[in-house]
Amino acid sequence: MAGANGSGEGSFEVPRVEVRFTKLFIGGQFVDAVSGKTFETRDPRTGEVIANISEGDKADVDLAVKAAREAFDNGPWPRMSGYERGRILHKFADLIEEHVEELAMLDTVDAGKLFAVGRAHDIPGAAHLLRYYAGAADKIHGETLKMAQRMHGYTLKEPVGVVGHIVPWNYPTTMFFFKVSPALAAGCAVVVKPAEQTPLSALFYAHLAKKAGLPDGVLNVVPGFGPTAGAAVAAHMDVDKLSFTGSTEVGRLVMKAAAESNLKPVSLELGGKSPVIVFDDADIDMAVNLANFAAYTNKGEICVAGTRIYVQEGIYDAFVKKAAEVARKSVVGDPFNPRVNQGPQVDKDQYEKVLKYIDIGKREGATLVTGGKACGDKGYYIEPTIFTDVKDDMAIAQDEIFGPVMALMKFKTMEEVIQKANNTRYGLAAGIVTKNIDIANTMSRSIRAGSIWINCYLAFDPDAPFGGYKMSGFGKDMGMDGLEKYLQTKTVVTPLYNTPWL
């Protein structure tokens, strides 16, 4: 396939990808769905079927929750010392590192992700995050309380119980471990419902977890569809906690189901429409490359995609010119090709949604500077796209497109751009490009978003909590905040007699 700039990709070798696990993983075993039904998972490079996956629904979720309940209520996992749990999680991480190539291949054929990025970042990053929480497993402790009366008080931090995780398709490995790592470290048992578009790596991780010594029932993986399997997890009376990453629309349904069932606590990481704000003092080449990285990483299929680019008027024209040049040079093609910068959208639905938004942008009166078209004769590829003359109330400036579409806008003053940046229902992340520490400090405190990246973007780290403001959700992944949400606090009080002090 030709790149976005019309140049060919050159020859490269596509590895043979073997799919080893296609069944549900419940109670430590791979099993068929109760209904016997399967569904197809497709390769977005071609649209062809990769494998038929067992299709879990309510009956299978019931079995998975029952297995998790038994593992939590009567099994060894929550009763082990944190040190012992940490050793098993470290072994799990070792096994991930032994299978980096195979796991990266699965995410490439299932999600259209760049193989080189998966191999270098996503899969090793999952092992890193698992090790971070393995190291925290024996450092979970409460406090001794200084009571005002003759009482001895202390708190215990206890695992919340059976956790339902509903994970998205854009980062199948990363999101799996955002959820599973801290929950396991806390001593919980989990039921994971991977996205129906990308179930392959989740099933492989279930296999590795068992091999690492995770007791049966502690980790269960039930592929299936949102309205059936996902809804069953959200509404289950025996799930104690729910963690969901996905769209704001589905997040509402998850919260409603949790409230109408057993009032289980919910954490949500939802949509975003993140601003990248470039000031006049910025180095233009650096700023353009950062904006390109923010908008087009993972073909724009990322909740924190920086797709609203605000550029101060003094450098706006030069920025637009360079941004268009960079976008046109980006090579779109097979994600196994090391020379490719952007792979295909995850599936036909997402591909058509992005193209629809590009049409909406044109109809709304924005100027299409570059891109805007599908490319290739098969698969779900779209050119990196830039619009200028974008107004804040346009759909392409307000809605999460989840594709390689950048909206460029001009601003004059810092006060003006703060207002513009906050004029969104979302609040997940923001980027600021400036050499002025005063501007950086003012902006970082003024923008209502969960992550602020100054002169960088997508600066994730296991120790850095991640989560949103406003309709981007609530609750944090990563950091000690990510562990805390899988724990609950118990207060224990006992009288003191004849004590020399309180």
From TrEMBL:
UniProt cross-references to InterPro entries, sorted A to Z: Ald_DH/histidinol_DH, Ald_DH_C, Ald_DH_CS_CYS, Ald_DH_CS_GLU, Ald_DH_N, Aldehyde_DH_dom
GO molecular function: aldehyde dehydrogenase [NAD(P)+] activity
UniProt-annotated catalytic positions: 269
Keyword annotations from UniProtKB, A to Z: NAD, Oxidoreductase
Catalysed reactions listed for this entry: octanal + NADP(+) + H2O = octanoate + NADPH + 2 H(+)
Pfam families: Aldedh
Gene3D superfamilies: Aldehyde Dehydrogenase, Chain A, domain 1, Aldehyde Dehydrogenase, Chain A, domain 2
Record SUPFAM superfamilies: ALDH-like
Top-rank taxon: Eukaryota
Domain Aldehyde dehydrogenase: 31-492
Subunit-level organization: Homotetramer.
Protein family per UniProt: Belongs to the aldehyde dehydrogenase family.
UniProt xrefs under PANTHER family: ALDEHYDE DEHYDROGENASE-RELATED (PTHR11699)
Full protein name: Aldehyde dehydrogenase 1
Protein species of origin: Urochloa decumbens
Source organism phylogeny: Eukaryota, Viridiplantae, Streptophyta, Embryophyta, Tracheophyta
